[in-house]
Amino acid sequence: MYYSKKEWGMGFRNMNLFNAALLAKQGWHILTYTDSLMTKVLKGKYFPNANFLDAKVSPAARYTWKSICSAREVLRKGVRRMIGVSESVDIYRGPWVPTLLEFRVRSVNREDRQGPNMVKELLTDGCWGLEVLQNLSSRDEVEAITKIPVLMFNSGDFLSWNYGKNGDFFSQKCL
């Protein structure tokens, strides 16, 4: 399998990376196709009260589920939320800022833990509220957040693969 196609092989460079890419595609399917039968069954069994990226993996879980979960690290490196209405994106837990490490806001300038928790609370009339942002985050994070275009026409938030031309994981060459 490692031999090139010219040498009558399959041309795979690294089977471990190839396997991780295929498992990550299954994870992407779970993240983006929430109404599919596979996603509903797996969610009901393994992560009924969490999202796929944050779900705990039980030692008693099936090998297939453990394998798919092992590829979440691949997804964490490139999946982020595109901001629309922003009703479902947590400021501090959700991956949504494209230029920050793991696309997440890290610094928190609030001691009392009061204030906005969801991205929609940072928006004012479809624009970023600078006063609120400056009270919550570091200067670098505020700058990164204000560079994010807010989707128009009251569209919903959706997941996007940061490194794809069209935002889809499947359009990437995995090897």
Question: What's the short story on this structure?
Answer:
With 175 residues, the chain is mainly alpha-helical.
Task: Please give a structural write-up.
The protein has 175 residues and is mostly helical. The protein folds into two domains: 5-77, no CATH class; 80-158. It has six helices and four strands; from the N terminus they run H-H-H-H-E-E-E-H-H-E. It has helices spanning 15-32, 37-46, 63-70, 72-76, 130-136, 139-146; strands at 79-82, 123-124, 127-128, 158-161. The strands form two sheets. Strands 1-4 form a two-stranded antiparallel ribbon. Strands 2-3 form a two-stranded antiparallel ribbon. A hairpin with a 2-residue loop joins strand 2 (123-124) and strand 3 (127-128). Helix 1 (15-32) crosses helix 3. It starts with 14 loop residues before the first helix and ends in a 14-residue tail after the last strand.
Strand order of the largest sheet: 1-4
Q: Please tell me the total number of domains.
A: 2
Give Rg in angstroms: 19 Å
Percent of residues in beta strands: 5-15%
Distance between the termini: 14 Å
Q: Structural class of the secondary structure composition? A: mainly alpha
State the total count of DSSP E strands: 4
Supply database-style keywords.
4 strands, 175 residues, mainly alpha, 6 helices, two-stranded antiparallel sheet
